Amino acid sequence: MKTRHPVAAATAAVLLLAGCASGSTAAAPAPTASAGGAGAFPVSFENCDTTVTLDAAPERIVTIKSNTTELLLALGLGERIVGSAFLDGPLPASLADAAADLNVISDFVPGQEAVLALTPDFVYGGWESNFSAEGVGERSALADLGIGSYVSPAACKGDAMPDPLTFDTVFAEIDEAGALFGVPDAAAELVAEQEAELAALTPAAGDTTALWYSSGTDTPYVGAGIGAPQMIMDAAGLTNIFADVHDTWTSAGWESVVEANPSVIVLVDATWNTADSKIANLQANAATAGLDAVLNDRYIVVPFAATEAGIRNVEAAGSIIDQLAALEAE
Q1: N or C: which end of the chain has fewer CB within 10 A?
Q2: Is residue 131 within 8 Å of residue 94, measured between CB atoms?
Q3: 141 by DSSP, 3-state: which?
Q4: PROSITE patterns attached here (predicted)?
């Protein structure tokens, strides 16, 4: 059932934007503008099976997760962010100036009291699970308070989940954010930059098999076949050993990893689960210590914040290509 946010009354002059795929096998289409022109309001679109309608651009925004925060900073909207939370790691140097005055209210998902104290008119979350009674509040409850909400479309669940996630979906979110926050020109410029950077990548040649190791010790949590890890590995020219698993991420058995014996291991580096700790685990585990990639230190490291759908995915693919080239040159 779709819930309509009463942030603003709907009118006939609506700008319709497609926020998520309508079915489990479709990528999110690019937004289409009405005759109202760039920056026209009201705007309305479907987002994770929720209808969002706004009469004006939000002015007091709370962002949850790094990908949402980084996108708004890249669009020049830092002054509208009244609070950020649950960041996945340090912001990139390119956004340091824009983030100089960023108000980080929690290292985790903030509670409703902390969020409401900021008197926001909008909450932009990286995950659907951010919007719960234990977190910032259910989306419908926020709407009853006049607070709009939006979830990164890549994180939609059920029929709205991108299957598979593609860069078109990632770029469509940038366009949607541009329309939603009244900065369509900045969004179009950012998309053009990202598309050019993606087109300039030269994926690795040959068949370099890879394990995307996100977390876990006894049971590894790995990149599967339809999410951001697969999208990034495809762009970098790596062959995911778990590409046949129809999921974004998945729990796997070390025996499956040993059987595949990947050429390289992509290590997701997070403050709470570092790349170094993963290497130590691989070396200490009798099952994985004999893997070719472990014996020959064939590791590629990517920061956690660049591994969820967002503006750093193209950069992550480029970094993987460069690190692989350096390994091959040894």
Answers
A1: N
A2: no
A3: helix
A4: FE_B12_PBP, PROKAR_LIPOPROTEIN
Phi, psi angles (nearest 5°) of residue 191: -60, -45
By CB neighbour count within 10 A (0-12 exposed, 13-18 middle, 19+ buried), where does 255 fall? exposed
Amino acid (1-letter code) at residue 308: E
Kindly provide the b/e burial profile for residues 185-217, where b requires at least 16 CB atoms within 10 angstroms of the residue's own CB: ebbeebbeebeeebeeeeebeeebebbbbbbee
Domain ranges of the chain: 43-199, 203-329
CA–CA gap between residue 205 and residue 262 (Å, rounded): 16
> With bands split at pLDDT 50, 70 and 90, how would you rate the model's confidence at 25?
very low
Lookup: tokens for 165:
């996630």
CATH 3.40.640.10 assigned to 203-329: no
The first and second tokens of residue 272, run together, are 């709470």
Q: How far apart are CA 55 and CA 30, in angstroms?
A: 21
20 has a pLDDT exceeding 50: no
Listed in order, strand segments (DSSP E) in 162-276 are 208-215, 221-223, 238-240, 249-251, 264-269
φ/ψ of 67, rounded to 5, equals -65, -35
**Closest by CA position to 47, among listed 209, 129, 137, 156:** 156
> Domain 43-199 carries which CATH code?
3.40.50.1980
Any idea what the Cα angle at residue 112 is, between residues 109 and 117, rounded to 5°? 110
Q: Are 227 and 214 in contact (CB under 8 A)?
A: no
Relative orientation angle of helices 313-329 and 167-180, to the nearest 10 degrees: 150
**β-bridge mates for residue 16, sequence order:** 44
The answer to whether domain 43-199 and domain 203-329 are alike in fold is: yes
Q: Are 27 and 61 in contact (CB under 8 A)?
A: no
Contacts (Cβ under 8 Å, ≥6 apart) of 109: 64, 85, 86, 129, 130, 134, 135, 136
Rounded to whole angstroms, the Cα distance separating 177 from 132 reads 22
Classify 106 as helix, strand or coil. strand
